[in-house]
Write the structure tokens for this entry.
Amino acid sequence: MKSSNTSKLVASLLILGLFVACQQKELPVYNLGETDLTQENLIPFPRNVEASNGGFALDPYTAIYTSSDDPTEFESIGLFLAQKIATKTGLVLPVNDLQIERTDRIINIIRKDSIVLPGEEAYELYIGRDTINLAASSTQGAFRGIQTLRQLIPEESIDTIAEFPIWSIPTGKIKDEPNFEYRGSMLDVARHFFSVEDVKKYLDILAYYKINYLHLHLTDDQGWRIEIKSWPKLTEIGGSTEVGGESGGYFTQEDYKDIVAYAADLYITIVPEVDMPGHTNAASVSYPFLNGAAKPAKLYEGTRVGFSTFDTRKDTVYQFIDDVVREISEITPGPYFHIGGDESHVTEKDDYRYFVSRVEKIVQKHGKRMIGWDEVATADLDSTSISQFWASMKNAKLAQEKGMQVILSPASKSYLDMKYDTLSEYGLTWAAYIPVDSAYIWTPETYSGIPKSQILGVEAPLWSETISNIEELEYLAFPRMIGYSELSWTDEANRDWEKFKVRLANQAAYLDRMDVKYYPSPRIDWAKKDFPEKKVVKD
Ligand code: TNX
């Protein structure tokens, strides 16, 4: 199987080579000056970078070709690259077109079976003067590699003797693979609702930094934000308000599918969360039997936590949960279902443990692996379930003892809703002030005392009590989220605040082009330039 794939690859490369040789009698050579691939502003920084100090001249006669293995999948990666190059540079490059008259340079995106790693996200990027070869064993790896290539294309073209613009890409070799399998962010759409468009914009930026999971916190005391067809009042009533008394909102199942598909095109997996047994006021207002309380619950627009609970001893509650988990699981291709489980302060401890164990079985019945906030580890759980460490070292230890994997989201280091400093316009302070450097300077590998082998990855949650629109979301998420991307992708030996800070400063052009209203932290010497009007294109 392997050898036939390899021979197919060799054959297609040979054909390409011949084709190129025929086309290129005289390859134009431009003076692109001295380059150094190791000094490029790549985030997350790759595992291995070697410079060869030349330049690949990206010009209008550059063509993209993709592996004939998995033809449609690999071609989609080539088309993605072509589209990003077009929006950044204006160059419209052909993809898999064997009819073109002139080809100066080639970008090959190749499937190479020998690069096999967990999650298949590894890739190799060889940049020569005339050819770029991006190799990966899967489209996922190729997609991650494309982000590296995008980051290497300068914002501005250079002047050469050619009568067309040229973008100089530094030559050399990059071999890269992620440090952690799970690299995520979370968005709370319950406290304040965010639109499908907002979520898509957030996904676009996350993908550029190789994030591969977006966890959506879909329900809380203040709002239920996902349509459940068998329980329509959840959104009709439970989705009608939000913090501060605004009009709320919710995703229809079609909206949710749209987000899932959009994320999948960016090789990002959506993790849905339905928070329970606490954080369930909006559900109980919609269906009063759920909390078993004598007094009916009322819609809540404040920001307190820990006052609501489901009635954990009623079978009808579990029938309800079965419907909710089933409907959401049916439209969630990813492997995980998050059941929340945090801050159930008014649930008796035994009831809580009983509830979490029973819900774990429901999640498994619908084909998903359960994730819960760290408290869930107090229940009797399967080692296949995952605990998300946010506050309690004791709970993290319990999870470790049960053989569960852990996602690291320590509030004092990775909560995107914490203020940067006393002057921050939005955010909370209960866990810490988290300036840009503090967000980056910690070591997930050792922070919790849990062995690395049991750490699935790192996730930075963005709770939305204090933010209600995309600009405010961007203010809290960026630039810190960019640091979390490096903390989760890059191995410890390649992480260094002083170096990262320079690379971060140079993200300004991309963030501005994407119209991201990031917090311009004074701790970063932002590399701001005024780009000509025509370059201000969103991609
Ligand atoms: C704690 S973290 C919560 C959320 C709040 C957040 C605010 C966690 C599992 N629960 O309900 O939104 O703090 O920072």
About this structure: The chain has 17 helices and 16 strands. Residues 305, 342-343, 373, 390, 415, 417, 428, 463, 465 surround TNX (CB under 6 Å). Confidence is low (pLDDT under 50) at residues 1-11, 17-22, 531-537.
